[in-house]
Design goal:
- There is one protein chain.
- The protein is α+β, with helices and mostly antiparallel strands.
- It has two domains: about 90 residues, Nucleic acid-binding proteins (OB fold (Dihydrolipoamide Acetyltransferase, E2P)), CATH 2.40.50.140; about 300 residues, 2-Layer Sandwich (BirA Bifunctional Protein, domain 2).
- It has twelve helices and 19 strands.
- The strands form four sheets. Strands 7-11-12-19-18-17-14-13 form an eight-stranded mixed sheet, with helices on both faces.
- Helix 4 crosses helix 6 and helix 4 packs across helix 7.
């Protein structure tokens, strides 16, 4: 039976994988074999196999049989540098041609655009693959926490018949001759499920934004973990759930991705809870002291977000914090306003290392208020009846959030460009491969 690199310990093994490096020392031949779990050194002493060795090329796929022994020549690149495999059988399954980009970059730096052009080869790099092993563990941690707490996983539509947030940054879809859109967020359908009596739900899936943005933190297609819960007192209940979710996922990554974190040179710091919370309008005073003047009643900008991140890090020693009570005029119609101060909304962003990770808070569940806020936003009330109608028939208080998977990965691992935290990124200039 086939063994994976991470599983081999002693005895005879059968390995299948890619040729990572080739070293010819004359009487002895070496190559490094890589599979999804790691890299192991293979040594050939049998002269009958030398001709096979000569046919090897970098990234060829091979089938190897051999005997595990204590390594005499150690390599830092291998999964376990105390062992190696003495090859008794070597078969080339698929011979690789000359590579368009190098998997082992010694003294070479390939620009990101070219790496993305040849993404399947770029993803073979152990450090690149490590990013997505960690990302997978983040999602696993999210799911684990939510299921343990009684949340039901649901799947909401990706094609919708109307714009959910009143903006123009949507991708139109020709839906059997009718105009539809790729969703910006599964928000409205999550609310409909709460109205249906699904009290605690989460939805893992893609979202689309047709923003012509070329920043290193924006994508046209991203994935999110969207959570919604009923019978909340206010937005603080949502904040407590989100911070517990984050802490659980980080503990899982720290425990189960030690090899990947070491490969990337990263350490995970588990944040203390509750996370610090900053609120409007006090944020205006904080920013003014930091040299940034924002007009009262207006939202802050990207520079302000970074300044607040530095402020919280210095004052509270935390990379995570919540921003609450945004100006209501800057938020979608479904966000609940503060009743006695309607200039402010019960809207919450989670910031991690100076970058927004999620938007959430408390939703408006009172039918009359929803209609009122639709009119305020100058949205078509009739066109939104598919959403508003159920709110006539008894809907509990509710809240939730949607945390971006790629942005969270990016900030956790200090990746400079979000495209590196996506297997196949979709941006204004890129929709292939």
């Amino acid at each position: 039976m086939r063994s994976h690199v991470a599983e081999i310990k002693r005895g005879n093994v059968n390995l299948k994988g890619w040729v990572h490096e080739i070293r010819d020392l004359g009487a002895v031949k070496f190559f490094l074999l890589r599979d999804m779990t790691g890299i192991v050194q293979c040594i050939i002493k049998d002269e009958k196999l030398f001709s096979k060795f000569k046919d090897l090329t970098l990234e060829s796929v091979v089938n190897v049989e051999g005997k595990v022994r204590k390594a005499k020549v150690k390599s830092k690149e291998v999964f376990n540098n105390n062992i190696e495999v003495e090859v008794t059988k070597l078969e080339i399954i698929s011979k690789a041609q000359q590579l368009p980009i190098q998997v082992v970059e010694k003294g070479i730096t390939t620009e990101l655009a070219r790496r993305l052009d040849y993404r399947s080869i770029d993803l073979r790099k152990p450090k690149v693959m490590a990013i997505f092993k960690i990302q997978s563990k983040i999602i696993e941690g999210f799911e684990e926490y939510l299921r343990k707490k009684g949340y039901l996983q649901v799947f909401t539509p990706c094609i919708i018949g109307g714009v959910s947030e009143g903006g123009a940054d949507v991708f139109p879809v020709n839906y059997f001759g009718k105009k539809a859109f790729l969703r910006q967020d599964p928000q409205l359908h999550r609310e409909l499920l709460i109205a249906a009596g699904f009290e605690k739900i989460f939805d893992l899936g893609p979202n689309w934004r047709a923003e012509p943005s070329h920043t290193p933190r924006h994508l046209c297609e991203h994935r999110g973990c969207a959570v919604e819960l009923a019978f909340i007192k206010d937005e603080s209940n949502v904040m407590r759930v989100e911070e517990e979710l984050i802490v659980h996922a980080l503990k899982k990554v720290k425990k189960e991705c030690q090899k990947e974190l070491e490969l990337l040179g990263k350490e995970i710091e588990i944040p203390k809870t509750p996370f610090p919370e900053l609120r409007f309008p006090e944020i205006y005073d904080i920013l003014e002291k930091l040299g940034k003047k924002i007009p009262y009643g207006e939202d802050y900008d990207r520079e302000s977000e970074k300044l607040l991140g530095e402020y919280v890090k210095e004052k509270y020693k935390s990379d995570f914090f919540f921003v609450n009570r945004f100006p209501s005029k800057t938020k979608p119609f479904y966000v609940m306003k503060v009743d006695d101060e309607p200039i402010w909304a019960r809207s919450v962003d989670l910031i991690f290392k100076g970058l927004e990770q999620s938007s959430g808070g408390q939703r408006e569940h009172r039918y009359e208020k929803i209609i009122e806020q639709l009119k305020e936003k100058q949205m078509n009330v009739k066109a939104m009846e598919w959403f508003t109608e159920p709110f006539k028939y008894g809907v509990p208080s509710m809240g939730g959030f949607n945390i971006g998977i790629e942005r969270f990965t990016m900030q956790l691992l200090d990746i400079k460009n979000i495209r590196e935290a996506v297997l196949f990124p979709r941006t204004p200039e890129r929709f292939l491969p």
